[in-house]
Design goal:
The complex is a heterodimer of chains A (153) and B (251). Chain A has 153 residues and is α+β, with helices and mostly antiparallel strands. Chain A is built from 4 helices and 6 strands. Chain B has 9 helices and no strands.
């Protein structure tokens, strides 16, 4: 490679590396703000903004969903394994909402430690399969052949 | 090897081989696309959780892959153009940009249509969605910069620098779902693990992705060829080409 081209290549590499470093530093500094939600553990430890709206994310704990009669009021626990936070919500839940499902709720922490949500969004995971396969997997799991990927550790 | 590659980048040679490649890529894209659509719409099962709306994936995911793949192509062509000063690389990068911008728009639009029924929202400022939106702005900035500067060499050089700096965004898009907590789920296919998708659903996805890639190759090469003829219209080989056509021969 002739020296002229090598110099140009070197300059480009330096510019891209420089910009990359700058962006990486900015992203690390903004890390807290880029994360979409806080985990229940962070909420329990008090690492969340007090008196402000924020988002909480985790799995809906199995058996924790309680609906209030005929109304739209619902409460459920969001868990990340070691810790739970109870979420109260009034409104229509997304189709994917169910026990064991990942969700993100936006709202604020009430004085009693419960989370009052004004929006609940469902997360879906990266697994895609036809219903028959899901059924077969569930059966195998019940017979103890496979570990449950959704069970909290 | 390098000398041979360098020769293929000369305008006349490029014009000759790109025509054949564009034609094959076009037919390949059509065939794979028809097969992909058949599998996507008729011969693949609904998802165990998302039901029929999982079929949006067969457009959304190829569009998102292509939006990043085309950007990498533009960046690579820009590097070649800046370092080796090969004119054809310039034209290929410029021809790729509008296609990439449209695929980015398609990924965002189909993602929005998918997000509403599944997540419960059209849009959320999570890291994946935001970085993909920045990619769209990078494309628009690149196209705008090319169009704004009158002098062609300067325009190409400025746009190439922008394209190379913007490369920083590509790993951010890809790893956004791992580095930060997002509403968007993690990678299904492009990870080191085994893809966590059933083969009956992976098949239409891959067919559609290859079809979209070949579509890009076919259209980008055609756009680059047109631009090449326009710029080289005074040169000997283009005159000969046109004379040959007007003489009634099929080249």
């Amino acid at each position: 490679m002739n020296p002229k081209r090598r110099n140009r290549l070197l300059i480009i590499a330096l510019v891209v590396a420089g910009v990359g470093t700058a962006v990486a530093l900015a992203l690390v500094a903004l890390n807290e703000n880029i994360n979409l939600f806080y985990s229940p553990t962070q909420v329990v430890r008090g690492e969340v903004p007090q008196g402000h709206n924020f988002r909480i994310g985790g799995l809906v704990r199995e058996g924790s969903v309680r609906r209030d009669g005929q109304g739209l009021q619902v409460s459920f626990d969001v868990t990340d394994g070691p810790h739970n936070v109870t979420v109260e919500y009034t409104g229509i839940l997304p189709d994917l909402f169910r026990e064991g499902q990942g969700i993100v709720a936006q709202g604020r922490l009430a004085a009693n430690g419960r989370f009052t949500a004004d929006q609940v969004l469902a997360k879906h995971d990266e697994n895609y399969m036809p219903p028959e396969v899901a059924e077969a997997l569930m059966k195998a799991e019940q017979e103890g052949a496979l570990p449950n990927p959704h069970s909290p550790q | 090897m390098w000398a041979w590659l360098h020769r293929q980048g000369s305008p006349k040679r490029f014009y000759n081989w790109s025509g054949t490649l564009a034609r094959w890529a076009g037919w390949g894209s059509l065939l794979l696309g028809v097969a992909g659509l058949y599998y996507a719409l008729f011969a693949s099962p609904p998802d165990y959780q998302q039901g029929e709306s999982v079929r949006i994936m067969y457009v959304h995911v190829p569009a998102a892959w292509l939006s990043m793949f085309i950007y990498m192509n533009i960046a690579a062509a820009s590097l070649v153009s800046l370092v080796w000063r090969i004119k054809v690389a310039d034209m290929f990068a410029a021809a790729s940009a509008p296609i990439g911008a449209w695929f980015t728009f398609l990924a965002l639009a189909t993602g929005s249509l998918w997000g509403k029924p599944m997540w419960g929202t059209w849009w959320i400022w999570d890291a994946r969605l935001t970085s993909e939106l920045i990619l769209l702005f990078l494309y628009l900035g690149y196209i705008g910069l090319l169009a704004a500067i009158e002098e062609r060499e300067t325009a190409a050089r400025a746009a190439a620098v922008l394209a190379l700096v913007g490369v920083v965004n590509i790993p951010i898009i890809h790893y956004s779902v791992e580095w930060w907590s997002t509403l968007h789920q993690g990678a299904t296919v492009t990870k080191f693990d085994k893809p966590s998708i059933d083969w009956t659903m992976l098949r239409p996805l891959l067919l559609m992705a290859f079809s979209a890639t070949l579509f890009y190759v076919a259209v980008a090469l055609r756009l680059a060829r047109t631009e090449l003829l326009r710029r080289e219209r005074e040169s000997q080989w283009v005159r000969e080409l046109i004379d040959g056509r007007q003489g009634g021969g099929r080249r």
